[in-house]
Amino acid sequence: MKMTKIVRTTADVFxxxxxxxxxxxxxxxxxxPGGGFQGGAVMATGAALLIVAHAYTDVxxxxxxxxxxxxxxxxxxxxxxxxxxGILFERPFMGNWMxxxxxxxxxxxxxxxxxxxxxxxxxxxxxxxGVGIEVLGGLTIILLYMLSGIKEEKQP
Amino acid sequence: MMxxxxxxxxxxxxxxxxxxxVADLPFGAPPVSDMDDYFIRNGQExxxxxNIVTSIVFDFRGFDTLGxxxxxxxAVLGVGxxxxxxxxxxxxxxx
Amino acid sequence: MTTELLLKLPYFTxxxxxxxxxxxxxxxxxxxxxxxxxxxMESAVNLFLVATGYRTGGVAPIFTNAPSPxxxxxxxxxxxxxxxxxxxxxxxxxxxxxxxxxxxxxxxxADKVKKLKG
Amino acid sequence: xxxxxxxxxxxxxxxxxxxxxxxxxxLVGSLxxxxxxxxxxxxxxxxxAVGLALAGKVLATGTVLYVFGAAIPQQTLxxxxxxxxxxxxxxxxxxxxxxxxxxxxxxxxxIYSLAAESKQSGLETFYAMxxxxxxxxxxxxxxxxxxxxxxxxxxxxxxGAALVAYRVDDGVAVEAGLKYALLxxxxxxxxxxxxxILFAQYNALNLASLANRLQFTALDQVALVxxxxxxxxxxxxVPMHFWTPDTYATAPSSVTAFLVVSSQASLYGxxxxxxxxxxxxxxxxxxxxxxxxxxxxxxxxxxGVTMAIPQKDVKRLMAYHAVSQTxxxxxxxxxxxxxxxxxxxxxxYGKTAMAGGLFHVINHAMYKGLLFLTAGAVFYRAGTRNxxxxxxxxxxxxxxxxxxxxxxxxxxxxxxxxxFASKLLIYESVFRFSPFxxxxxxxxxxxxxxxxxxxxxxxxxxxRRAEFAAVREVPAPMLAGMALLAVFVVVxxxxxxxxxxxxxxxxVDAVIDRAGYVAAIxxxx
Lengths: 156, 95, 118, 525
Known about the structure:
Strand content of chain B: under 5%
Structural class of chain C: mainly alpha
Structural class of chain B: mainly alpha
Oligomer: heterotetramer
Number of strands of chain B: 0
Mean pLDDT of chain B: 84
Number of domains of chain C: 1
Order of helices and strands of chain B: HHHH
C-alpha cells in the first residue's frame, strides 16, 4: 500500500521537522506547556507519517523493533536512575536535588512571570527527556505492531 | 425490544441523577484551593520550573509519573505479547 | 434550574458524554465500538477532572510571560495528564486483544465471542 | 553503613526493585534462558527480602512514613503549610500484613513459574509483566495517597489482564483477558470520578488529610459508592463476581495464584476506604456499613460454594471457591465494623472477628495459591484441566498429591492447617454476634470439604490411566514453589498464636485506630 512518489518525498522531508518539533516540546517542558509525554507523542506521529506514506515492509526495514525496545529501556532507566539519584544525595526517592544549586539546570527562579530560562528546574529536564524517549520508543512499537495487519492484506 | 426499553429507562434515570448530582458542584470557583495556591506560590522557588503543571507532574507528584511510565511500558509489553510468534502446540484447545 | 445548568455547561457535557459512552458500551455488539464507547467515557472523566479546577478568568498556571497572576488549579491538570496516558495505554492493549480475537474467532461480534463457559 | 542506608529507604526500594527487574527483563531475557531464570530468581528474592524487612521494621517501630521528594524522608508537612502536598507511603500494620502476603506468594510463584512456563514462547515479556503485577500490588497496599492508589490499581489491572491473555489458547484466554481489562477499566474510571468529586470539594489527595476534611455531604456519599462498588467488584464479591471464574481458569497457574493476592489488595483498598476515609461518620451508623459487608460476605460464601460443586474444570472450581472464601473475610471484618460503635461488644468479639477475617486473608492467599499451583502441576503433566479426563495421578505424582491434600484440608478448615485457625476465630466471634451467620459459615465449610474430596478423588485416586503413562513428578522449581507455600500453611496451622499476636492483632488495631493514622501525617513534623 505504497503512496505516490510525491507523498513519499514530502513525508521524508517533513519527518525530521516533526522530530525536531517533538524534541522542542520535550526540552522546553518546564517552561512552555508540554513535557515528556506530549513531546514523545508528537515524535511518534512522525513515525506514523512514514508508515502511512511508505509500504509497511520498507518502514520496518528502517525502523527496527529491537532498536525501539532499547530506546524505551534507556528512557525508563534514565527516569528510574534520576529518581534513585535522589537517594545518593540524602534526599528521598524522586527528590529534586539539582534544583537551585546554581550548577547544571540549577539557576534559581523568582516567583512571578518571567521570560523563562532553559537552565532551570534541576532534575525536571532530565526526567522530561527520559520520559520523552520512552514514549517515542513505546508508541512507535505499538504503532508498528498494530499496523502489522497492513502487510497481511497485501498477499491475497 | 423490551431489553432496549429497559436499558433506555436506566440511562434516562441515570441522566436525571447525574445532572442533579453535578449541579451541586460549584463551577468556576473551587471552594477549597489551599494546596493549589501553595503550588502556584512556591512552585517556582522550590522546583525552578515556570510551568507549574510540569513541576507537579515531575517533582511534587513525581512518583505518579513513574507509575504512569510503568503503565505505558505494560501496554507496550502487552501489545508485543499479543503479536509474538507462538511455538507449535503451545495453545491448549479448550474442550 | 436551567439557567444554573447553562452556567455549568462543562459538567452538563460530562454527563452527556458519559451517557453516550455508556449507551455505546451497552447497545453496541461490535467489540471495537464497545472500546470506542469506553474511550468516550474516559474523555468524559478527563473533562470532569479539568473542569473542577477552573477559576473564572483564570490563566493557565505557566509563569513564562504570564498575562495575569490569577491562575487555574494546576494539580487537576497533572492528574488529567496521568489519566490520559493511562487511557491511551488501556485502549492500545484492549484493541490489540480485539485484533487477536478477530484473528482467532473470525468475528468481533460480542454475542459470538462466547467460547468461554460462563 | 549499608544496612542503615537500605533501611532508611525501604519503602522506595519496595517499588524500585521490582520495577528495575521488570524494565531490564526484555534486555536480560534476550541473553538466553539461563540468565533470564537467574534474573527472575534474583529479582523475586530481592523483592521478598525488601518486603519482609519493611514489614519487620513496621511491626518493630510502628507506622513507617516515607515522603517522595521531600527534604528528609519523614517530613510529611512542608515547612510553611498545615497540609501534606507530596505523595507519601504510609505503611501501618495492616499494610505490613498485606506486604508480607505479597512478598511470600510472589517469591513462591516466581520460583514455580521458572519451570511451569518453560515450554511457552515470549517468556521475557511474561516475567516483566509478572514483576509489574507484583510492583502494582505492593504499591497498592503501601501507598497513603488516593490518586497513587488509582495509578497502582491501574498497573495491576493492566498487567493482570495481559498475563491472563498470555497463553492466547486459541482466542479463549484473550477473550477472558479482554473482559477482565474492560471491567477493570470501567471500575478504575469510577474510582477516578470519585477522586475528582472528593478533590473538587476538599482539594486534598492524601488519605489522611482527606479523612480529616471529609464532611459526608450528598456528593461524598456518591463518591463512597463510586469507590466501594469497583473495589468490591475487583475483589470478587458476589454480585459482581462473574469475571473471576473465566479469568482464574484461563490464566497460567502461577499468575492465577498471584491474581488471588491482587484481588486481596482490592479488599485492603475497600477496608482502607471504609475504615480510614469514611470511618468517623458517627451520624451514619457503623451497623449499616457493617451489615453491607456481612450481606456481601454471606452471599459470596453461599453462591461461591453452590456454583463450585457442579464445575468440570479444576481451576474454574477453585475460582468459585476463592469467591466463597472471600466471603469469610468480608463476614469477619463486617462483624467487626458493625460493632465498632459500642466499645464493650467490640472488646468482647468485634476484635476477634476482625482478627479472624484478617488472619483468613493471609491464610487464604497461601492455601489458595498452593491449590492453584497444584492444579497447574497436574495441567503441566497431564495437559488437561477437565476432571472427567483426569484420574489415577496419585501413583506418579506423590508430592503434588501431598501438596494438594494440604491445600484442600486447609481450605475446608480441617484442624491441623491454617484454614481452621482463622475460621475458628470467625465462628466464635460471629456466633456471639448472630448465631445464624456462624451456622451458615460452618455449612459452607462442610460443602467446601465435600467439593474438594470429589476433586481429590477425581484427580489422584483410581486406577493408573493409559494416556497418563508418561506422567512423572513435576520438576524441582515447581515443587520448591509449592513447598514454600505449604510450609506456611502447615506452620500457621500448628502454631497460629505467634502469627496472631505479632501480625494480626497490630493490623486490627491499625485498622480501628483511625485517629492515629491521621495524626501520623497531620500531627507529625
